[in-house]
Known about the structure:
Order of helices and strands: EHEHHHEEHHEE
Radius of gyration: 19 Å
Structural class: alpha+beta
Helix content: 10-25%
CATH architecture of the largest domain: 2-Layer Sandwich
Largest sheet: 2 strands, antiparallel
CATH superfamily of the largest domain: Histidine kinase-like ATPase, C-terminal domain
Strand order of the largest sheet: 1-2
Number of strands: 6
Strand content: 15-25%
Number of helices: 6
CATH class of the largest domain: Alpha Beta
Amino acid sequence: FGIASDETFVITTTNRKEITEDNFSELVQDGVTLYVLQSVDQMLLVATKERIDFLPHYDTLVKSGMYEYYASEGQNPLPFALAELIDNSLSATSRNTGIRSIQIKLLFDDSQGKPAVAVIDNGSGMTSKQLNNWAVYRLSKFTRQGDFESDHSGYVRPLPVPRSLNSDISYFGVGGKQAVFFVGQSARMISKPAASQDVHELVLSKEDF
């Protein structure tokens, strides 16, 4: 690695958790991506990439929303799909001490790429592992633990009430993926955890699959 004998360094996960003798067996698993840094909070010099493995057939993701939304009892299915995407932002901003900001933008400028739906919020942000978890089909927000923590950490299911802004739509951890691939052909998630300097990006694409 080109590290001089008099230099010190740390090894961390992409979540900036330092690898130690005590947590080695917990954090270091097959396929995990690690950083060799001068310090835990060192700025990254270049962008890094991490592979995400999917067990289900890709059709499970790219076609999973079709039946659910086309079977919406004669109603326009698009609002239901958008509601699933907004639910992620509702969860992310639920613990904000200040203003909760959620924007929905419809982008049609060909010079900026293909048409897109953008949902932007000022929530807590997600780590690389939380983005990884979001990509995995049928990984409920209630069963994600350890370093592969939930993208809604600390979430408590609200008491049964009429459907409202209680962020309890995607209970089984599939709604976001179904909505994305009902609306379009790819998803790009860009997130910066509130307590981190790292910006994480996840791309899911039918073309890449």
